[in-house]
């Protein structure tokens, strides 16, 4: 899948490959020790710059909703 | 505000659904998804918390375009928690652009069917609201609600398509239930496609020219 910025594409692919392998071979079997942090860090540096360049609302992006009381409730 | 909910079943085990969840884009049913990036990711108490940023095309009718200034895409934040012990994936998705016209928040839970461990139940809920005034919010919400319903079916179809291409439905051998053996790299998929092409080339001369 494409990254938001073509500059981050290669870093994203490397990280995604590491993550997908870790997720199926380790995480789902109960081994939660992170193995992709180096690749994630360089990929994140690139994405953060792209997010800034695209003028994305950082406050909205960073705000946690899942698991908080900001989640919408079922209509009663 | 408009509320939407539906429920669907995926005929795959929970581990397969979890592996495919991260690889469900691109797929032929999600051409509107332009990009996908991880923004944050951490493990807390054996659960995986992720946040992804998606960019999607935003096809609106002309009258909605008037409000939106003609923006042709929007940004979506997808938060998720994967709980491998309870076999649950919970996602919460919301748009973080164009909220001055409409906000769509969606919560999806993928859980192992309590009666059949080879099936996953997907429960989807969505809330659509608009801050527009002078009677405009009703039609906007109705339009988006209708489109959401259509897209929700497409999202499930797309997910099924990815699951089917990753995990052959014919192979019901017990090894398929071991998560470690389910990971399929891009190279493996490319290799499969290459073999299929080679095979097609081989059988081609057998097809009479018309």
Automatic annotation (TrEMBL), chain A:
GO BP, sorted A to Z: phospholipid translocation
This protein's UniProt keywords: Disulfide bond
Pfam family membership, one: UPF0203
GO cellular component, one term: cytosol
GO MF entries: phosphatidic acid transfer activity
UniProt catalytic activity: a 1,2-diacyl-sn-glycero-3-phosphate(in) = a 1,2-diacyl-sn-glycero-3-phosphate(out)
Family under the similarity heading: Belongs to the TRIAP1/MDM35 family.
Name used for this protein in its record: TP53-regulated inhibitor of apoptosis 1
Species in which this protein is naturally found: Magallana gigas (Pacific oyster)
TrEMBL record, chain B:
InterPro entries, sorted: PRELI/MSF1_dom, Slowmo/Ups
Domain PRELI/MSF1: 1-171
Name of the molecule in the record: PRELI domain-containing protein 1, mitochondrial
PROSITE patterns: PRELI_MSF1 (PS50904)
Species of origin: Magallana gigas (Pacific oyster)
One Gene Ontology cellular component: mitochondrial intermembrane space
Name of a matching Pfam family: PRELI
């Amino acid at each position: 899948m494409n990254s938001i910025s073509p500059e981050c594409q290669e870093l994203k692919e490397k990280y995604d490959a590491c993550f997908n392998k870790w997720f199926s071979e380790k995480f789902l079997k109960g081994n939660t020790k992170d193995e992709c942090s180096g690749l994630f860090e360089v990929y994140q540096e690139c994405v953060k710059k792209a997010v800034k360049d695209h003028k994305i609302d950082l406050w909205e992006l960073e705000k946690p909703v899942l698991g908080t009381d900001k989640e919408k409730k079922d209509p009663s | 505000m408009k509320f939407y909910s539906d429920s669907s079943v995926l005929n795959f085990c929970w581990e397969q659904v979890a592996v495919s969840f991260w690889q469900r884009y691109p797929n032929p049913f999600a051409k509107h998804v332009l990009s996908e990036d991880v923004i944050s990711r951490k493990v807390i108490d054996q659960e995986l918390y992720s946040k992804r940023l998606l960019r999607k095309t935003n096809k609106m009718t002309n009258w909605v375009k008037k409000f939106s200034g003609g923006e042709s895409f929007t940004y979506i934040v997808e938060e998720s928690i994967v709980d491998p012990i309870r076999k649950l994936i919970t996602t919460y998705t919301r748009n973080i652009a164009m909220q001055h016209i409409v906000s769509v928040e969606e919560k999806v839970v993928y859980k192992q069917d309590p009666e059949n461990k080879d099936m996953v139940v997907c429960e989807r809920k969505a809330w659509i609201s608009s801050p527009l005034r002078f009677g405009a919010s009703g039609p906007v919400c109705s339009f988006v609600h209708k489109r959401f319903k259509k897209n929700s079916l497409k999202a499930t179809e797309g997910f099924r398509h990815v699951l089917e291409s990753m995990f052959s439905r014919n192979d019901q051998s017990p090894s398929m239930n071991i998560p470690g053996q389910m990971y399929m790299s891009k190279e493996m998929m490319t290799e499969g496609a290459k073999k299929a092409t080679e095979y097609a080339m081989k059988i081609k001369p057998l097809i009479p020219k018309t």
